[in-house]
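Subject: Sanity check before I submit

Could someone independently write out the structure tokens for this chain? I want to compare against mine line by line before I put it in a report. The sequence has 148 residues.
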Amino acid sequence: MRTFPGCALPALALLAASAVLVSACDEDIPTDWRLNPDDCSDPANGTEAHFNDVVKPQVLEPYCSFCHWSDKQDEDRHGATAAVIGSELNYDVYAQAVSRNGVTWGRVKDRNMPPMGATPTAAEAALLLEFLNCSAETQSGDDDDSAQ
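---
Independent answer below. Compare away.
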């Protein structure tokens, strides 16, 4: 009969392997998903109210708040400073969250944001894309086409 320390290691290894396998089960973000304001299904999905009630708590806070939140300063931003990225980019502020839609979508679609930890699921990415498509009319000067 095994003692507790003898059986704990295999059990922990099995648990860790299960976590890796489950996290790998998420659907890929379709490569043909493009940032396109014409694909907005409901203009209300681009409003500040929708941002505050749905997009921020479901997508931006879990994935972006570690570096891109207005209460973060200097080293607490982990490199996401205005000096490094070229502008203030706080995803808890509506006007800033919609200011660089092309860059934001390109990084999420390629699954390189956030750079560590979990990335948004396909469903969360779809929610973000709908918001970015619908909020495109509120932008001024987002000429970045990296999401194309």
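---
OP: Matches mine. For the report I'm noting this point. Residues 4-23 form the longest helix (20 residues).
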